[in-house]
Design goal:
This protein is an alpha/beta fold. It has 2 domains: 18-32 and 310-420, Aspartate Aminotransferase, domain 1 (Alpha-Beta Complex), CATH 3.90.1150; 53-307, Aspartate Aminotransferase, domain 2 (3-Layer(aba) Sandwich). The chain has 14 helices and 17 strands. It has a 7-stranded mixed sheet with strand order 4-10-9-8-7-5-6, sandwiched between helices. The radius of gyration is 22 Å and the shape is globular. The two termini are 19 Å apart. It binds pyridoxal-5'-phosphate (PLP). The site of pyridoxal-5'-phosphate (PLP) has 13 residues, from helix 4.
Length: 422
Amino acid sequence: MFHLHKVKTVLKTHSLDTAAIRKDFPILSRKVQGKPLVYLDNAATSQKPEEVVQAIQSYYRSYNANVHRGIHDLSEEATAAYESAREKIGSFINSKRREENIFLRNATEGINLIANTWGKKNISKGDHILLTIMEHHSNIVPWQLLAKENGATLKFVDIDDEGKLMLDQAEEMIDEGPRLLCITQMSNVLGTINPVKELIARAHDHGVTVLIDGAQSVPHIPVDLQDLDSDFFVFSGHKMLGPTGVGVVHGKRELLEEMPPFLTGGNMIKEVHMTEARWSDLPWKFEAGTPDIGGAIGLATAVEYLSSLGMKNVCALEKELTKYAMDRLIDIPGIHIYGPRDLENRCGIIAFNIDGIHAHDVSTLLNQDGVAIRAGHHCAMPLMERLKIPASVRASFYIYNTQKEIDVLVESLINAKRIFGS
Ligand SMILES: Cc1ncc(COP(=O)(O)O)c(C=O)c1O
């Protein structure tokens, strides 16, 4: 929680035309409860531009076939589009090698893959895994299960009162030599952007393997995997204009090669005999069964869309919206906002509570004004415990949001306070 003064950060400029962007998102013209939709639940999932919807439709309408199998035109076209999606997404995050990017359903599945393959093989009794208190459940629960199974323990880096990671503590805990460091690049509650590049370098100096959860960062800030040098990196397509059902786990080739497969069956094998099998090369070794072909094609179109805007612009636009929103929200008496004050270290997520009104009631009243936000623990219950709150309201922005929409949010919150007499 922070003290109530206006945000002083100097913002970078951007060249985005929000009005033009909004035209690409048909859903934004619909009404909710008779009012224009104000969609501020982007950290949960983003809306999809027409181009993404068209790309998926075009696959199903014109060249739907299974990949990697058929020797017929449709299958070859589908395979080419699926593998070219891998290339496009790989270059969006500047990964070194195409085969280091594995398609699966989402960030959650990616972390489960790593825990169940690399983790089971490399984490043993007496080891510990270092997490942070701001992790999403996806980056906690798989490690809890693994730790129980293999006799390892979990340790957590804390946050300071502003909601920033305690860097001195993080460094000390890295120096203790955990087997694995698992850290989110951007918190889905506090909006905090963690200095993961520095932490990865420190971890590597101590021989610690690092997994970065990029579910909130890849959609909103420029991410360069060669620069970060993470060992594992995961993200979901649906939070970055892509469809649900497709995500990416990136791993360094030497690690992926040594790992056993996660799911087994078709597509991930070279040969199968009655009692044994040989695995496919990377990345297919980790892509058992028929993948979400249309999803990968849709996600490739999403990253083309984001690239055409420029991720620096995307980030600058969101910071501008965040500053505007914070400056307006702090004028509401009884509001408590969580996360860093300075916009250098945060992006377009604002979690808050209002004295005397439960987050769920706020959400219900906002919905009546057409405003979609999220209320609850945001799949970060350890962080809620740390902040000593049961839940919070969360507004999260993306490329199509406007200051006018933030005004609607603020007016609606003032109205909620009036109704509750708080
Ligand atoms: C930081 C973070 N990590 C992981 C996830 C899990 O993403 P998914 O549900 O797409 O697997 C989320 C989703 O909200 C998130 O915000």
